[in-house]
Amino acid sequence: MTEAGTPCPLCKAPLAALQLAETTGDEAPIRLTVRNLPVMACAAPHRYFAGQKFPIWLLNALVDEELPKIPAGKAKGLIFKKYACGSCGAPLPAAGGEARTFSTSLAWNGTPAFTVDVAMPMVRCTGCGQEQARSGEELAKLLPAALVHVFMAAGIKAPG
């Protein structure tokens, strides 16, 4: 974690730990909202990641640990995608579904805990009735871009 009191690379004012109330990033159809995002900031305010490895850690935590908890179907076909239920294999509706939010609380290297909400449309399988996202692979591909939009909305400067 970057130490409090370290000079800001842009203005040389001391950096202090700060938590941003709420920051949102969209990559349709996913909406990612991070509450109490830990950052380092000066009075200007220039904002930086809480640590150099924070963005990669957060991406890995979301993709590897949190996304698998969300029930999801499977995409089939190379050019013309069709979606099948992850449980019974029945065809899923091509579009529609109500948005649902999945929340998780995370903390990194001694930072205060923060909350990540992942909102996406969920469809109901006509075969077994399970509510699920259309494709887990699709979610894993879209989540990194949504996270970048969160960082940009937060005004976080690139390291270095």
Q: How would you briefly describe this protein structure?
A:
With 160 residues, this protein is an alpha+beta fold. The protein has helices spanning 54-66, 136-154; strands at residues 16-27, 30-41, 47-49, 74-76, 82-84, 98-106, 114-124, 131-132.
Can you describe what's shown?
This protein is of the alpha+beta class. The chain has one domain (16-153). Helix content is 20%, strand content 34%. The chain contains two helices and eight strands, in the order E-E-E-H-E-E-E-E-E-H. The chain has helices at 54-66, 136-154, and strands at 16-27, 30-41, 47-49, 74-76, 82-84, 98-106, 114-124, 131-132. Strands 1, 2, 3, 6, 7 and 8 form a six-stranded antiparallel beta sheet that branches. The longest helix has 19 residues, at 136-154.
Short key terms for the protein model shown above:
6-stranded antiparallel beta sheet; 20% helix; two-stranded antiparallel sheet; alpha+beta
What secondary-structure arrangement, pairings included, does this model have?
Blueprint: E1 16-27, E2 30-41, E3 47-49, H1 54-66, E4 74-76, E5 82-84, E6 98-106, E7 114-124, E8 131-132, H2 136-154
Antiparallel strand pairs: 1-2, 2-3, 2-7, 4-5, 6-7, 7-8
